[in-house]
Specification:
This protein is of the alpha+beta class and about 400 residues long. It folds into 3 domains: about 220 residues, 2-Layer Sandwich (Uridine Diphospho-n-acetylenolpyruvylglucosamine Reductase, domain 3); about 90 residues, Alpha-Beta Plaits (2-Layer Sandwich), CATH 3.30.70.260; about 80 residues, Alpha-Beta Plaits. About 30% of the residues lie in helices and about 25% in strands. It is built from 14 helices and 18 strands. The strands form 5 sheets. Strands 4-5-9-7-8 form a 5-stranded antiparallel sheet. The protein has a 4-stranded antiparallel sheet with strand order 12-13-11-14. A hairpin with a 4-residue loop joins strand 16 and strand 17. Helix 8 runs antiparallel to helix 11. The longest helix is centred in the middle third of the chain and has 15 residues. The radius of gyration is 21 Å and the shape is globular. It starts with 11 loop residues before the first strand and ends in a 14-residue tail after the last helix. Pfam families: FAD_binding_4 (PF01565).
Length: about 400
Amino acid sequence: MTSAFGEEAMTDVVSPLDEAGVEAVVRDALARKAPLATRGAGTRAGLGRPVQAARTLSTERLTGVTLLEPSELVVSARAGTPVAEVEAALAEKGQRLAFEPFDHRPLYGTSGEPTVGGLVAANASGPRRVIAGAARDALVGIRMVTGRGEAIRSGGRVMKNVTGYDIVKLAAGSHGTIGVVTEATFKTLPIPESETTLVLEGLDDAAGVAALCAAMVTPFEVTGAAYLPAREDAPSCTCLRLENFESQLRYRIGALEAALGHRGPTNRLDFPTSRALWREIAEAAPLLGPEDRLIWRISVAPSRAAELVAKLRPIIASHFYDWSGGLVWIAVEPSDDACAAVLRPAVQAARGHATLVRAPLATRAAVDVFEPQAPALARLTRAVTAAFDPEGILNPGRMHAP
């Protein structure tokens, strides 16, 4: 299913059963020099610029967990495997994907199941990235078919194997522009016994972000750090998650509260309530609001986050902070340029970068969705992409205008 923010319907969708089938489809497109759009289950269809292609290659039939080695802390799965299936298999072994995969369905109103390939292509990482790193950091190996129609393997299937490290990291967040991922291998971590969240109430943006940053430099291993502004029915919440054994949490949450409690009233959330809160934060639920609002995701140094938001107040409909203030989510009212003329200069002055993650097709076709690149970086990007896809047949224009 595709929402109003997704791509236009493709008239020809091909879904190979295996990697050899993916190679055949790409080689055919290469021979005809016909652009090819790629996707998994389509749950992230509204992410990036629209691609003009008469044919879509779907990896949704490339399914299955192919390796699960709890002792080595690794898992491998084919690109079309639902992320939920991988997480369920890991949970049976007491492990998880530590970066807390980000689910785009609430943003776009799509259905279906997010897949491993889409997760890699989007580098889709949630609140735990603040301590565990991104999907890119957990990715230790991939198989993919390049725009040359060649299947390649990079990295390994154990944590200590770093062969092909650069290509592995390059694939994450490339949005299918250098190759079609057919299999991915991730390092995993044990699931903690419990979690709790300390909430400081009533702080303004600057004080809230300052509290997040102060918490991150304590020895208490904060695994989630977000600030939710006040609403009509609730005060602002500065949220700090702790995870580990129940016995440890009692001490750590008390020590963290003692260190930060002078900043404002505090509240502690139990395990179920904490988990529900961070699921909402992971899905950007605090700012979804009206469906026609356009949504930006801004990465910036936490020390500059509150000041940046203050400058953008005239255009902000709603917002919140994640990653200790290093990630700012902003919703704006509908406009032809999604308020880019105001937002981008402010973000650049703060030395950050912004991605338009939700907007109609026409807006995403006319506005830079990803941060505009400096000329030297743009040339390097084109050169790297051309090394894998010399004819530019894979998702042309997805990230930047041709």
